Amino acid sequence: MSREFELCPGRMIGGDHPCFIIAEIGQNHQGDLDIAKRMIRIVKECGADCAKFQKSELEYKFNQKALEKLYPSKHSWGVTYGDHKRHLEFSHEQYKELQKYAQELGIFFTASGMDEMAVEFLHELNVPFFKVGSLDTNNIPYLEKAAKKGRPMVISSGMQSMQTMREVYKTVKPINPKFCFLQCTSTYPLEPEDANLRVITEYKKEFPDIPIGYSGHETGIAISIAAVAMGAKVVERHVTLDKTWKGNDHQASLEPDELRELVRSIRIVEQAFGSAVKHMLPSELACHNKLGKSIVAKVTIPAGTVLTLDMMTVKVAEPKGVEPDNIFKLVGKKVKAKIDADETITEAVIEKYSVKS
Questions:
Q1: What is the pLDDT of residue 1?
Q2: What is the rounded distance in angstroms from the CA atom of residue 200 to the CA atom of residue 127?
């Protein structure tokens, strides 16, 4: 069983705890605080556990030339890439306002710290956990500084190798044992053949003492549901109010009805895990009573006869009798009374017999 820990106050992940569902609002709010609040409310209504954003301190995330680069994309909110990112970036005060709004609604609130200074701010904001985006997963100094803050960490693994993830594990584990990995492919949108859900299984083998999850960028919800069936304890999906909006992430995001159905389906899958103990369930009794088979006499069997296999067959019979899996236990037993051909063989007519014998 994977290690479990408290990711948010009162909310454990790993082990047999329910999958933690992160609705990644990211920057799909279009730089509009009212839209961001509306999205927080909607993801709460859809049943997600956490509303997550992306926080950058742009001068620490990008160098000056990157910010000054012209950005003529149809998704651009400005002439340069810096202009574009500044349009989408909320201030510290706006983040505090969003956090307060989420708290009032009763949904966990956090963000990916996209650089070390953003992590410092999120730590001051007292978010329940840090999300490490795939772009920083091989950023060892960043990981060390984030881990030392002592907050739980959810670490995506897009664009990384297994060897890199081993190094990440070795880096974070001694500092902060409360972390998990998410299988992730950094393609927007993601084609099914690139989801590589089998990596979840490999991560569970390689890192058995931490929970494993999935961060998806595919269209639809089927792959994310399959990830939970394979053992994902955290699922993260981008969300949007409209896939046609300007922005690179919208097409790989879920609209509210899809998110609602994803949450519903994940909870159904978790119910279906049930018990590992195999036995007849009360819900199966009706079928068993109607169609369950019994051992019947293939021929007339006189009283005192020692049973042989060729005297017996298996049918749906009335009344119910000895069940088919006990047929070999009847061989060599003596019958106490005559059994007519096609009549049920019951325990009562067999000398010194019980199903436990």
A1: 47
A2: 27
